[in-house]
Amino acid sequence: MNKEQLVSYILARVKDGKQREAQKLIDEVIARQERGGLNQAYIMSITPAAISLIKPQYLNDVRKAISNFKG
Fold first, then answer.
1. What sign does the CA torsion over 44, 49, 52, 54 have?
2. What confidence category does residue 62 fall into, taking pLDDT thresholds of 50, 70 and 90?
3. Which of 24, 38, 60, 69 is paired with 12 by a 20 to 30 Å CA distance?
4. Could you tell me if 66 and 43 are in contact, meaning their C-beta atoms sit under 8 angstroms apart?
5. How far apart are CA 17 and CA 36, in angstroms?
6. Is 7 exposed, middle or buried (0-12, 13-18, 19+ CB in 10 A)?
7. How many CB atoms are closer than 10 A to CB 42?
8. What pLDDT does residue 71 have?
9. How far is CA 32 from CA 3, 49, 56, 58, 59, in A?
10. CA-CA distance, 13 to 32, in Å (whole number)?
């Protein structure tokens, strides 16, 4: 799965009406990753917000997809 596929996969599992908020968070993560500012502290700080955007029945699937991503 490439980066675009992962983003699409995640956005398809976001709560109704939360796609724009989720896309903004994803864009921020990607930007930080590209400039080398993606670290464990940052990930931990956004985790609650990210979890709140995902439909509960897809949370474990999204976690697995993110964990398996080798972008």
1. negative
2. very high
3. 38
4. no
5. 31
6. middle
7. 14
8. 62
9. 14, 17, 26, 25, 23
10. 23
